[in-house]
TrEMBL record:
<comment type="similarity">
    <text>Belongs to the BMP lipoprotein family.</text>
</comment>
<dbReference type="InterPro" id="IPR003760">
    <property type="entry name" value="PnrA-like"/>
</dbReference>
<dbReference type="Pfam" id="PF02608">
    <property type="entry name" value="Bmp"/>
</dbReference>
<keyword id="KW-0472">Membrane</keyword>
<dbReference type="InterPro" id="IPR050957">
    <property type="entry name" value="BMP_lipoprotein"/>
</dbReference>
<dbReference type="GO" id="GO:0005886">
    <property type="term" value="C:plasma membrane"/>
</dbReference>
<keyword id="KW-0449">Lipoprotein</keyword>
<feature type="domain" description="ABC transporter substrate-binding protein PnrA-like">
    <location>
        <begin position="39"/>
        <end position="324"/>
    </location>
</feature>
<protein>
    <submittedName>
        <fullName>BMP family ABC transporter substrate-binding protein</fullName>
    </submittedName>
</protein>
<keyword id="KW-1003">Cell membrane</keyword>
<keyword id="KW-0732">Signal</keyword>
<dbReference type="InterPro" id="IPR028082">
    <property type="entry name" value="Peripla_BP_I"/>
</dbReference>
Length: 324
């Protein structure tokens, strides 16, 4: 029996992904000579995409490889508990001791199996976990939504703005509404969720409904549909706030700014903590103060004084934990 693992590499000035194959024979002789603590793996519920959440995880894996010298591997389409169990078993045989599950989906699933693998540390994102060898990294979405809403309320011409979230539980949407309302009592905020990260068609239908109600700035808080929504907003000569990454390249006058989650940097920090024996178990939160979240490039449409005010408020929040 031959097991095939994908090992991440780095190609070109932009850090493009290169996938090579490491083959381990039935006798389990290992090609790599790296010690066990220097092997990490990434599990993805879907595939690596070009501008979304999964690609952020892959970039994080590349950081682990290039900055920390770890051997890394990734597996795509790990979408149910059976696949997780089989993959983790194979990774354990290969000496992997740090496994990232890229999303909330993996938190519950890792909780079901972590007790069987005391020598592996499991890391997921935005879920709730407990145990000695399992960590959930939680990005605090409320504040980034708050500042996106505040900016939108200052920039709208129609006094109507909208947020389209993927899931009901996302704090970004609540923060967006609160930030907009705190900035202006008269602002109208349309708040809808589409019930899934990949609901592109429903997100576009929601956008159409919002624009029919005169919303002129949209915050698409869903990594599976944010690019499509922004492109449609651009086509209607309206404006948007980018999500997850810096979407200024989609249109400098369209994208007022973006709420950027530096997932790749958090991967590096977590892996380094693991190497140094300092990785905490349980739920660990990251926000603006930890460098996990920032605002992206501002559009030339945003006046300098508005940019400065928002920057000062974010710095105050980073120093005190208090929103304006």
């Amino acid at each position: 029996m031959i097991k095939v693992y994908k090992k991440a590499g780095i190609l070109g000035a932009f850090g493009a992904a290169l996938t090579t194959l490491t083959i381990i024979t039935a006798c389990n002789s290992q090609v790599s000579t790296a010690p066990a603590e220097n092997k990490a793996a990434l599990l993805l519920e879907n595939t690596i995409d070009e501008q979304g959440w999964n690609n952020k995880g892959y970039e994080g894996l590349l950081n682990i490889q290039s900055d920390l010298g770890m051997d890394v591997t990734y597996e795509e389409n790990i979408s149910d508990l059976g696949k997780i169990k089989n993959t983790v078993k194979d990774l354990e045989e290969d000496g992997v001791e740090l496994i990232f599950g890229h999303g909330k989906f993996f938190a519950e699933k890792f909780m079901e199996i972590n007790g069987n693998y005391p020598d592996i540390h499991f890391v997921s994102f935005n879920g709730d976990v407990e145990g000695d060898n399992i960590t959930s990294v939680q990005f605090e979405g409320y504040a980034m939504g708050y500042f996106a809403g505040k900016l939108s309320s200052q920039m709208t011409d129609t006094n109507t703005i909208g947020v389209i979230s993927a899931q009901k539980w996302q704090p970004e949407a609540e923060g967006f509404v609160e930030g907009a309302k705190k900035s202006s009592d008269s602002i109208k905020v349309l708040n809808e969720n589409v019930g899934g990260w990949d609901k592109k068609e429903k997100a576009l239908q929601t956008l159409e409904n919002m624009t029919s109600k005169k919303a002129d700035i949209i915050y698409p808080a869903g990594n599976g549909f944010h690019v499509e929504v922004i492109n449609e907003v651009k086509g209607q000569d309206l404006q948007a706030i980018g999500y997850i990454g810096d979407q200024s390249d989609l249109g400098e006058t369209t994208v007022l700014t973006s709420t950027v989650q530096h997932v790749d940097e958090i991967y590096r920090k977590v892996a380094k903590q693991y190497q140094e024996g300092e990785l905490e178990s349980g739920n660990v939160s990251y926000d603006f103060a930890e460098g996990a979240i920032s605002m992206g490039t501002y559009s030339s449409e945003v006046p300098e004084d508005v940019q400065q005010e928002l920057t000062e408020e974010i710095e105050h929040y980073k120093e005190t934990g208090e929103l304006p």
